Amino acid sequence: MKKEVELKKGNIIIYKSKEGPKLEVRLDEDTVWLTQSQIALLFDTQRPAITKHLKNIFVSGELDEKVVCSILEHTTQHGAIRGKTQTKKITCYNLDAIISVGYRVSSKRATQFRIWATKTLKEHIVKGYTVNEKRLLQTQNQLKDLQETISLLQEKSKHELLAGQEQEILRILSSYAKTLTLLEQYDKEKLALSKRAKGKFILHHNEAKHVIGEIKKELIAKKEASDLFGADNSNKLEGILGNIYQTFGGKELYPSLEEKAAHLLYFIIKDHPFVDGNKRIASFLFVYYLDQNNYLYKSHGEKKINDNALTALTLLIAVSNPNEKDKFIKLITNFIAI
Predict the structure, then answer these.
(1) SS (H, E, C) the chain
(2) Rg value, the chain, Cα
């Protein structure tokens, strides 16, 4: 079922390119909403082209139509009778859908909008936590972790390996900020690791190797991997799996499901336990571990981390410095604890 929300007046961002058009972009539910006609006007193309692009986006699974599409109720004057109104239902699409369409439309206006969206809307999200300036000034020291994470992602986004991943990094940053619930969590001394869930599934070495073997068969069949994919680099994988379940004084060093998953992803990417395919294997095992623990999906069925976001996270970790490990572990644990 597509969700229905009432279109209310709220924050408005004005978008106007040098050659037009001028659009009032309404912020609602932490995003913006445009109709297909408005998107067509925005990108200087025809509505049928927008319909085609949206259909391809949903069919390919790039975006979930139920998530990015809403039926908004809009109240207008009815006829010539003063005071008489009517309510119309309008199908609108959020920023994720708008930007995805924009990357498919080949026009000058589409390029102009992408530049504007990256600059203006990223600034809105990144600086959004400063809206309540008085309260946040009182907790300036507690905001240090969040500010460092934002700076870290901004810095890493400039790396050549992450070219084209700017949109996903922006989404990661937005989702991360939402999970923090600032006014509550920052009453503490500093941002803590998210430690909500206890995982029942244990990823043993033999099972991990079996999963990697199955992945290898599929990739080789599609000519996306060589025989070196997943080949052991000494016994590092067994050591990594031992590390995420290690104990000290009878207590687990990483007691929560989130911590284990985050360290599994991080260690495989950074320790290079395989001759080839470390980043892809890390992502597969990370998803497999969450899925086996029934922790891969949100309550409404959407993945906590979609494929594009996971790719961006993997590349961010790959280009990170070892002394940034704790920041990335905190980022991952909070990101998947939604």
Answers:
(1) CCEEEECCCCCEEEEECCCCCEEEEEEECCEECECHHHHHHHCCCCHHHHHHHHHHHHHHCCCCHHHHEEEEEEEEECCCCCCCEEEEEEEEECHHHHHHHHCCCCCHHHHHHHHHHHHHHHHHHHCHHHCCHHHHHHCCHHHHHHHHHHHHHHHHCCCHHHCCCHHHHHHHHHHHHHHHCHHHHCCCCCCCCCCCCCCCCCCCHHHHHHHHHHHHHHHHHCCCCCCCECCECCCHHHHHHHHHCCEECCEECCCCHHHHHHHHHHHHHHHCCECECHHHHHHHHHHHHHHHCCCCECCCCCECCCHHHHHHHHHHHHCCCHHHHHHHHHHHHHHHCC
(2) 23
> Which pairs count as long-range contacts for 8-15, CB under 8 Å and 24+ apart, including other chains?
13/120, 13/121, 13/124, 15/42, 15/113, 15/116, 15/120
Of the candidates 115, 117, 112, 126, the residue with the CA atom closest to the CA atom of residue 97: 117
pLDDT in tens, 178-212: 444 433 443 343 445 555 678 889 999 999 999 99
State the angle between helix axes of 257-271 and 236-244 in degrees (0 to 180), rounded to the nearest 10: 160
Total residues found in the chain within this entry: 338
pLDDT of residue 313: 80
Tokens of 19: 């050659």
Which segments of the chain have a pLDDT < 70?
A: 1-30, 74-84, 117-196, 338
Give the integer Cα–Cα distance in Å for 291 and 297: 8
**Which CATH number applies to 205-336?**
1.20.120.1870
Angle at 166 between CA 11 and CA 225, to 5 degrees: 145
The residues spanned by each domain of the chain are: 3-78+85-102, 123-185, 205-336
Residue type, 336: I
